[in-house]
């Protein structure tokens, strides 16, 4: 496995087209695009990394996997009154579907859906408390107490977050929100601004590869049934209107973030985190996707066959 | 396994709500809704069935899996100039997406996509020749020379096929068609009217569970890579705007037909065909979906974990 | 008035950018773009023309004004169960609105709406009979027995009419049609292929400028109330998604055709026909619109003030 | 004329179905629905009123006519870089069109368009200054210094204005705004909360009926050309997706407000204000529309003929 990840990192280093760094959040725009990291965590506790796997990056939308997990723990199946579980066929920030479906987002991974999830887990608490809870959860999942929120990124998002504010006010106009739009957006922007490296991220995702149990701690995070369902949502909707392409090329449940990270799950086999800040036109990490494609080719881990 | 399929058939027989038989194709509307069949074909050649697994039914949209397979064999990757590979988020017969995307269907499994595939495999030939080729392919896949087209159903579809005619003319108006709309629709309606039973269908799908090789004949139908990709498309788009729900509940690549059949694939493990004519509101077999849900629970075959 | 129309014709002759002749109907594409005609018919029976006002052209969608008039005569207010009377905000051949509104077109002047009107006036008759009736009506309106259908154009439209066929089949799929799609499309394509010159067209529109009475014959075509309503529909919807622009610049009820003609009505004052085959990007006659703008500036005929 | 307005008021008093008072702005919901007023102002300075024509009501969206007039005065034709001038075919608060057209509203009378106009007239100033300017303009137009903003209504709108906030943030996300979303919304909600009676409103609209000149003051408000264009926009877009219906039934340029007022213009003849708080399902005053329909029938003022 170490050989495989080293080969992949070497191949990625030689690529000339690394995609374009996200520009719409100013704080993300200044990241060096020539970075690449991969970490593969196995259920037996072993971990294989290559590239700058200790460099922190903004996990952005990957955090949606964990806030969904928290929301499922708190609300159970009532989560599905707030968001659907179908792919949207639309970009991550589309509002058209919201108008056609009375303010209910298609799934928890488009921005509107994750904002609705943020409202659900706030549930009348202060954003500060809820963010502390999210952070505790991430630290526990990653088995690493050092994880924090990058306040500069959070502020940068708040200042430029008109599209997300539009989505939030739109849902609020249907009376769907329990909390103020400001509290919800504050929570959302902050959990998107959690900084992690690929080692922490791959470790955090292990419970999804291991039937709901985090093998490093032995702790059951979710039921085995729920782990499968989160995986199914990641496969169906984890890459927005590029989800079909990712399933086609990689064949693993995965969730991308605009910071260039991707968390992928090979059920029963591995949790994988890759990071490279350059994005493809849809907004998913260009080299990250290519690295996962290679990894699956080498390991035969596609859920769709060898 | 025989025990499992028998149990499932028994449970399904006891259900009171069996959904509503499709009414928009008159010939399908007169099927008895109290029927259920399941067949599980394993790569080792063994086959387990329960219910009326020898009763023929109209495979309808399940045929799209096989016409896509044929088209990939003929055109290779050029197929993707004709159809995309993303879920559409829309019903099977929606035309909105076509207008927004200049007449290119989102994927080969929505009606518009399958009609475009029919145009691609016609490629200037007579519909009769192309249909003969499709039938030969189905007989070879099922290892059963008795498979035919139900002409009554085909005629019924032609007479009531205004929505599909609308989709076809719409695409033709962009200059996307090589053949006349009539030839394309004739081909499409006829391949949807192939009649099969669950035994034949489960056998036909085995190549998708077996890395592209049909184990009953030993013949390689498609490359292992292509088998994975067809599976990914089935998972992402095989149940129209109910694909997310099917992935969430069943967790297998699958393709439904409005005749009440579903072909599902457990990669490396099994090809499964179920049939029950009653449909849920989205147009997928109600008991068929429930039966697959039970099967996966008993076998742990979900691609998303145990 | 003769001075005004002569001036306008002279100004139009000097324009270098005359727009592009419609290319999607092959028979229309071979018309010489350097032609211009204007005719102004007054309620007192006087007529002022300039340019090639005796040259026949394909009236195309202008015919929709007259089929709507016929349909109102036959069905009365029941016409509004078949089509709405709101602007669509969409191009003339859009199908999106039809899907969102269950197959009922927004107004009688978008293609779908006029096709629905053709179905309504067919009402079980043969297309040949209905077309004969439409022709009789046009000849009576224009007070000219020579008006006919250009069969070459009609055939050209039939052969290239996939978009309209798509719209027709779409509506038929909702069960909205009384007649076969072929009969409806045949009727529609033929009435769009009526050939007229600006003199005939301006004369035909006089009843709309004269409270429903054709002053050349003294015959009441429609009630004064209905004349106003047809005028309102022409203003709101007569130029598709360019209707706002036409109202803004010209300020008269008008109906354009892709053949380059426009019929405009100055209520109480005049019926005006202009023709120049070059179109603007939305599909309305470029010089025709400019000529009307000039005419209104010179005459103060805008319905919105001097 | 006094006889006509008295008759209309009497007829309206006898109607049993007066529509439903707008409920989404709490402060508007408590208005007594059994009120009706009409005022007709003629260019010669005479004024005819009936009903409670001195009762103040919230002019709401009618204010958009005056902010557009101001914006045209400040920016001239550059206004059209901010908003289009086509009917939208969508409800007043739709966001779908905004996404499809990159954040540019279809016209200045849908909410998004009027919010964009508020941004344009703010142009870096404080909302307080701009609102003072709007008020001065309204007082001058109405020739009445007593006109003010109803602060309770403005606050009520701010508190429940999520849908408008969504529209504003959406446009801001395209970088279209010069001012902060809060300043723009504050301005917008306040100018919508101006309280006027039908006498003041009819007087204010006279310049549109009189080629741009306010006859009570002799002051030219806009060029005659611009007056026509504002009238054309009112006719095409003044009643949202009920504009076609209003043109069909009434046949005058008009602008409705959710407070139950309508300002209508008979070019060259009269400026008319009606008020009755009950709305039809689209959000336009039910009795107000009926009263205008009667008035036009009695006076022959329709722009579409007698």
From TrEMBL, chains A, B, C, D:
GO molecular function: glutaminase activity
Gene name for this UniProt entry: glsA
Positions contributing to substrate binding: 61, 111, 157, 164, 188, 240, 258
Sorted UniProt keywords: Acetylation, Hydrolase
Gene3D superfamilies the UniProt entry points to: DD-peptidase/beta-lactamase superfamily
Subunit structure: Homotetramer.
Organism classification: Bacteria, Pseudomonadati, Pseudomonadota, Gammaproteobacteria, Alteromonadales
Name of this protein: Glutaminase
Known EC number: 3.5.1.2
HAMAP family for this protein: Glutaminase (MF_00313)
Family as reported in the entry's similarity comment: Belongs to the glutaminase family.
Keyword Ligase applies: no
Short name of any one Pfam family annotated for the protein: Glutaminase
Entry annotated with the keyword Cell membrane: no
Annotated catalysed reactions: L-glutamine + H2O = L-glutamate + NH4(+)
Class of enzymatic activity (EC top level): hydrolase
InterPro entries with a match to the protein in the record: Beta-lactam/transpept-like (IPR012338), Glutaminase (IPR015868)
